[in-house]
Structure formats: structure tokens, C-alpha cells
Amino acid sequence: MRRVSIVPLLLATAACGQQAESRNRAEPVRATAEAPRASGARPDAVARARAPSPASARSAKAVSIDDDAPLLDFHYAWPAEASAIPELARRFRLDAERTKAAALTAAAQDRKSAQADGREFHQHLLHRDWTIAGDSASLLSLRGSIETFTGGAHGSHGTLSLLRNRRQNREVGIETLLAPGQSWSGAIRAPFCVLLDRERAKRRGEPVRKGDLFGDCPKANELRLLLADGDGDRRFDHVLVVADEYVAGPYAEGRYVIPLPITAAMAARIRPELRAEFRPQPPVQ
């Protein structure tokens, strides 16, 4: 069947990483103090103790859960790098179970209503794919792409973000990577709004008019931020700023993904122990 997509309801039911994902919305990106570690434990020792062993990492496999049934076309997938982290693999599997159950309930209710109303029922769809945006020695950045359809005029798409700090063995926000008192907010906001307007003008075929519907720059908490490695050298070089449907433009314009370079000035604000995992780029012109 055609893969169109859905509802905020299913986004809200997603159990996997929602607290961590919300930290990677484009709230003011300001550093906070690092969580304390066990007394006398060196960071590298903690990381080695908690990281997957090389053997388990090599044996980890990508996972794809697929079930195309009359009520629901369901798909949920994550990469081998996530499978190599047991806590993350468990969370994804639990999230798949919960989101599938919620989607099946909604589809069954829709079919029942369709029968009562004498209208045709259309199979629902829920697809969620986690892919790697970047993977360094200490950090794993994942992008979640959601595609859903619940029988309406069209489906919908959404974006999730998840950043895992292997040193701390937990999901974190981008702001935790910065030295205390440092922020990326201004470095992200200004160039994003400029590049977004360039792209909106290109898609619309006319200049963006401030004050119009979808004419202003979206609010920070409406966006998703993802650390990205554009050339696969295991060093982060960009921040992807994602504005999903209806955030920066109407449905017909689709989502906007604006890559912003991590400049030398931004890299200088990163905690010293993590700076080698970033590769500065020239600023936006």
C-alpha cells in the first residue's frame, strides 16, 4: 500500500526516549554542570566499564519489526549500533510494543466506527525508523523518522532525536556537551532563520513575508536538533535543525531540514574532553 502517515496521539504514546528527545528540542542550548560520578572514578574508566565490549558490538545486528495486517501496517527499526547498547535496545523494543498496541487500538476503533457509519475502512499505518545521524567514540546521535496514516485525507510525518553519551551510559541533551556557562543558542538561531527563509522562498517561488501565516521563524521549542557527521569520519560537523510539517510551512511544503555547520567558535564552547570528537566548519555565508 502507499506509505502515507499520522496523529499526534501516537507521537504522544511513544515511550522510547521521550524525555531525552525533548531535551534535544531547540530550547536554549546552554551548558549545565556535569552529573557527578563515583568518587575516585576516572571518566575513561567509567566509559570502558559501561561501554559494550568489542565482541558484543561486532555481533550486534540491525533490527526491523514488520507486521502488515488488515488493521495496521506496522514497521519499527533501529541500527546495529543501537542494538550494541542493551539498555537502548530494550527501550526500542518496549517502545515498539507500546506504540503498536496503541495503533492497533486506534485502528480497531476506526474500523468499528466505519462499519457503523457505512463508510470504507482504510488500513492504518505506523512506521518508525531510527537511523544514525552521527557516531563518535563517546556519542551516538540517532534520528527517528515517523510516518503515520489513520484514514484521513493524508498522513503525517514527524521527527525524533536521541543523543546517547557512552561515557555516562544515558541519553542527554546537546547542552550537556558544553562547558559550564556556555551556550549555542545564538549560534544556532540566527543562521537557522536566515537559511530557512532562503529555502522557504525557493519552495514558494516568492519572498517570505514576515507576519504572514508561516512567515515568521518557528519558536525554538517547535524544532528538533540533531548532531550530525556529514562525511562519516566519526566527528560531528553539523547540527541538523528540523521543522516538521506545519511548523515552518503548510503540509504541501513538507518538512524542512536545515544543516548548520559547527563553527570553530561553537567547538570552543564544548567540554575539553569531547572537543576532539567535533570537526569545525566554516560559518554560514
From TrEMBL:
PROSITE patterns (alphabetical): PROKAR_LIPOPROTEIN
Chain spans, region Disordered: 17-59
UniProt biased composition (Low complexity): 41-59
Pfam hit, one: PdaC
Domain (Deacetylase PdaC) ranges: 68-156
Protein name: Deacetylase PdaC domain-containing protein
